[in-house]
Design brief:
- By secondary structure, the chain is α+β, with helices and mostly antiparallel strands.
- It has two domains: 169 residues, no CATH class; 150 residues, Jelly Rolls.
- It is built from nine helices and eleven strands.
- The strands form two sheets. It has a six-stranded mixed β-sheet with strand order 1-3-11-5-9-8.
- It starts with a helix and ends with a helix.
Length: 332
């Protein structure tokens, strides 16, 4: 690996990890209507973002967690659109002095109290660089547990129609490896939650990958020879590029709603890194045909690993890059 590419790789890792320090672990949840069906959080201090749906006015969804006395809880409520929903959060737990008017549709266990955090309908959305998206922030709340025990947050639709809501809980930024690698899948589901067509979300890469393969293998003046390693490697590279283009489109849509935000810099990192990686992989395969070189196989594997770290290529792209690199190593 050349010195410049090695330095670039190190910078990629540093910048990508730095950009994620404010990220939430995204979760699409449903079926938690009724306190007995509450989504259970085994760690309410870890930073989570739950994406839910109010099917009707008056819908209630529940989230359950345990707090020791004095432990801090933080959460905020947001929506992706100015839907006719009004997401009202109700914190329920032992030792809480009941405050506010509560709907009779909300279940409060015996000897528990509640706090109603109604929130205010925002005029403008905030830019979220992690996804990226534009979300309307309704409320933010901090609480220190009065007594140890099971607590709940009930999300109640005080509005006049159906729509989506988001609940961010926790303040400790950390990810399991599986959560990190699968974030592209979660983000795709979030796009649908925001109102994008599933056909657009999952079909978008096809419009870049297929024409790219057709051009390189059939139309280009000096076509690329079709081999297992070239097919997998180039497909992976095109998926990297498709992911970057798709994220750029989503960022532009969000910034059109919010106006330009300095936090777009974090988004730009996640746009540029996969794009650069994809172009580097393509650069290798567009060279005149030559005998496989071991270091090139190692380089492709390395680019695949970095791709997984920075959510490139819809998860599939990095694995294809790794497989392509392994094929080259096998031939050397």
């Amino acid at each position: 690996m050349k010195g410049g590419e090695a330095a670039l790789s190190v910078l990629i890792i540093i910048f990508s990890l730095t950009a994620c320090v404010s990220g939430h672990v995204p979760e699409i949840k449903g079926g938690n209507e009724g306190i007995e069906n509450a989504v259970y959080l085994d760690d309410p201090f870890k930073s989570w973002a739950f994406y839910g749906t109010f099917e009707n006015p008056g819908s209630v969804s529940y989230y359950e967690f345990y707090l020791e006395k004095g432990e801090r809880l933080w959460f905020s409520v947001f929506t992706p659109k100015k839907d006719p929903v009004h997401p009202e959060a109700v914190l329920i737990g032992p030792g809480i002095e009941s405050k506010g008017d509560i709907s009779d549709k909300i279940t409060v266990p015996e000897n528990y109290g509640y706090i109603v955090i109604s929130g205010k309908k925002p005029d403008m959305p905030d830019y979220e660089p992690f996804t990226p998206s534009a979300n309307y922030q309704w409320s933010e709340y901090e609480y220190f547990a009065e007594l140890p025990g099971t607590h709940y947050i009930a999300m109640f639709n005080k509005g006049t129609g159906s729509g989506n809501y988001g609940l961010a809980i926790g303040y400790r930024e950390e990810f399991l490896i599986s959560e990190w690698v699968l974030i592209p899948v979660s983000i795709a589901n979030i796009r649908i939650w925001e109102g994008n067509s599933p056909a657009f979300v999952f079909g978008f890469p096809i419009f870049i990958v297929f024409p790219g393969l057709l051009y390189l293998f059939r139309i280009k003046k000096e076509t690329v020879p079709i081999k297992p390693e070239t097919l997998t490697g180039i497909t992976g590279a095109l998926l990297y590029i498709a992911g970057s283009v798709f994220m750029l489109i989503q960022a532009v849509i969000a910034l059109f709603k919010t106006g330009f935000q300095a936090s777009f810099g974090a988004t730009a990192i996640f746009i540029l890194i996969p794009l650069i990686l994809g172009l580097l992989i393509l650069k290798y395969y567009l060279k005149p045909e030559q005998n496989p070189v071991k270091k090139e196989g190692i380089k492709l594997i390395f680019f695949g690993i970095i791709g997984l770290i920075v959510w490139s290529g819809y998860i599939i792209g990095p694995f294809l890059a790794i497989i392509s690199g392994l094929m080259i190593l096998y031939k050397t």
